[in-house]
UniProtKB/TrEMBL annotation:
It is found in: Membrane. It is a multi-pass membrane protein. Residues 272-455 form the Bacterial sugar transferase domain. InterPro entries: Bact_transf, EPS_sugar_tfrase, Sugar_tfrase_EpsB_2. Pfam families: Bac_transf (PF02397). This is Sugar transferase.
């Protein structure tokens, strides 16, 4: 895993992006040199612009999920995503052609060849994704503990995104430590922890034991390992890195207070606000025809009102009215009792089911963003009734209210539709990751992931 702007990205993903960008760059330069017969002076123009083109197209396809870990395991899904990437890349590529200084020597046939090269690279990456390995750099990991937490670590590392992390064994934390993993993988070593780590060529140690007092964990030996250059992570830091979440069951208040992240400052707030206003205005202009059509369809099927306004909890626990397109029947809560919305809710109209699946119902919240009650990206705002319940039942739930709620969020693109307290716990773990690490880079990643979810229906909320 590599940490870019406080966000963890699988190193294998970066390697594939860099490789494909270089491949496309070299191919574009070769095509121009062979077909346009450019001289030495024009080569100086082609090379940097070809590099900019290749990087832009690979970042676009990476944002659309082509390089997402686990992609390529299903042929139909692969075909759909490759097709989507090509369809969206072509008009963007032609737009880039108008900006780059290629017009004086590039003709239509040459541009078509560049587009064909782009399609070839995208298709090859898509249909070979399932055969990608761990990448060049593999980290050898030793886990301290053999119980349920150690088993959870082992399970997390089976995800394709973590193929560059290899568990070499499990080191018992104490004589009475339970064994929830394969006993054959337990490390039996007569020397110290550092000696065992050096013997197994360990790069990292994961402490998969919650209790740190009473001698359950060899703290002195862990310090020796850290001083020897071996990285040591606790459960919270481990799950933050490999799952993009802050686990509630391994979280302590001291980690929130003393750990990195969870910083809120005027500079970050100002940048985020400017970004919200600019992108919201752009999206409102682009989405205006879709919003008008959605309003007409709602009226035709179920009459007025078109919009649905409901009280939600925002920044610092302040209440505000969220605005959405109405997707449920007018008598959805005729008994006055709040109910969780579910994925196949029988109160949803036919038009409502479609606009929810495509997230068109969320578009009026862009006005909430312009007003300042919401942000484009952040934890989804909940109703006061459920917030009171969840705050009582879930530790640290109120932490999510230290940033503005969002139209979309990290939890929405990482977790399926939630309709229970257990789902709220799982989503909170992603919300806490966002609150801890939110940057303009992560906001951009979430927005692109939202586009992917809408277009593919993969894990849509």
């Amino acid at each position: 895993m590599l940490k870019l702007f406080n966000h963890y990205v699988p190193s294998s993903t970066i390697q594939r992006l860099v490789f494909d960008a270089l491949l496309l760059f070299v191919a574009v330069v070769v095509v121009f040199v062979m077909q346009a017969r450019v001289d030495g002076g024009l080569v100086a123009t082609v090379v940097p612009s070809a590099f900019a083109f290749a990087v832009t197209m690979m970042i676009l396809n990476g944002a659309l999920g082509l390089y997402r870990a686990g992609f390529g395991s299903d042929f139909r899904q692969t075909l759909m995503r490759v097709g989507m990437s090509i369809v969206l890349s072509v008009p963007v590529a032609y737009g880039i052609f108008q900006v780059l200084p290629w017009g004086e020597f590039a003709h239509e046939a040459l541009e078509l060849n560049v587009i064909a090269l782009l399609g070839f690279v995208v298709a090859v990456r898509g249909f070979t994704a399932r055969r990608t390995g761990a990448g060049v750099f593999v980290k050898r990991i030793m886990v301290i503990g053999t119980g349920s937490d150690a088993a959870a670590v082992e399970h997390a590392l089976t995800h394709p995104a973590n193929s560059s992390l290899q568990v070499v064994g499990f080191y018992p934390a104490g004589a009475g430590d339970e064994i929830r993993i394969d006993p054959k993988r337990v490390i039996h070593f007569d020397g110290s922890l550092l000696a065992a780590a050096n013997h197994l060529r360990v790069n990292e140690i994961i402490v998969a034991v919650k209790e740190r007092r009473g001698g359950a964990i060899p703290l002195r030996e862990l310090l020796d390992c850290k001083m020897a250059g071996i990285k040591v992570l606790d459960l919270s830091s481990f799950f933050e890195r490999v799952r993009g979440q802050v686990r509630i069951d391994s979280l302590r208040a001291s980690w929130l207070i003393y750990g990195e992240g969870f910083r809120q400052g005027w500079g970050r707030t100002l940048v985020k606000r400017v970004f919200d206003i600019f992108v919201s205005l752009l999206l409102l202009v682009l989405a205006a025809p879709v919003m008008v059509l959605a309003a007409l369809l709602i009226v035709i099927e179920d009459g007025a009102p078109v919009f649905y306004r409901q009280e939600r909890v925002g920044l610092g626990g302040r209440l505000f009215k969220v605005t959405k397109f109405r997707s449920m029947r007018r008598d959805a809560e005729r008994d006055g009792k709040p109910r969780w919305a579910t994925a196949n809710d029988d109160r949803v109209t036919r038009v409502g089911r479609f606009i929810r699946k495509c997230r068109i119902d969320e578009l009026p919240q862009l006005f909430n963003v312009l007003k300042g009650d919401m942000s484009l990206v952040g934890p989804r705002p909940e109703r006061p009734f459920f917030v009171d319940q969840l705050t009582r039942d879930i530790p640290f739930y109120a932490v999510r209210h230290c940033v503005k709620p969002g139209v979309t969020g990290w939890a929405q693109v990482r977790y399926q539709y939630g309709s229970s307290v257990d789902d709220a716990i799982n989503k909170l773990q992603y919300d806490l990751y966002y609150v801890k690490n939110h940057t303009l880079f992560l906001d951009t990643v979430v927005l692109f992931e939202t586009v992917r979810v809408v277009l593919t229906g993969d894990g849509a909320h």
